Amino acid sequence: MQRFQTDECQPEKYVMKKISSFIILFSLFLFFGCNKTNSSLSIQGTWELRHLDGGYRAPGNPTDFAPGNGNIWKFTSGTYQYFSEGELSGTGEFTKTKDYAIATGRKMDAIILNGSADDKIYFEIKDNVLTMYHGTIAADGTVATYEKIKTNP
What is the DSSP letter of 4? Predict the structure, then answer.
């Protein structure tokens, strides 16, 4: 008795084709479908505080901030100004780097203020929102969210 072999009689080939197709589609989804933070967006511009978590603050202090609150970071090419409630509170130079952030457990963009590695602030930008991780979060560090209010030339 002679047996004829066809693809229909070989379930292993059928299953392998389906698995291969699934792996290719899944890989394409991961490559194109993941919504990642765009670190190529520029930190340059004027950013106003919208939300603050952590830090040593008196009880009852707000965590959400309305537009016009005056808590602003202004970044130009290599320089910064920080305003607290509308008053200039800090100014100087910054450098941009990448480093491992303990707060997030991943490599992130960071700025170093005035050349001091002790003044390193990790950040990410997504949809005109700047999130800054400053200090050790578990030890009075902060996570602050800023909205871009002006793009500097």
Answer: P
Q: Is the CB of residue 101 less than 8 Å from the CB of residue 82?
A: no
DSSP assignments along 40-70, one per residue: TS---EEEEEEEEEESS--TT--SB--TT--
Contact 17, 30 (CB under 8 A): no
Does 7 have pLDDT greater than 60? no
Q: How far apart, in Å, do the first and last CA atoms of the chain sit? A: 84
- pLDDT tens sequence across 63-114: 999 999 999 999 999 999 999 999 999 999 999 999 999 888 899 999 999 9
Residue 151 backbone class (left: φ over 0; alpha: ψ -120 to 50; beta: rest): beta
- Bridge partners, residue 22, by sequence: none
- Rounded distance, CA 1 to CA 45, Å? 81
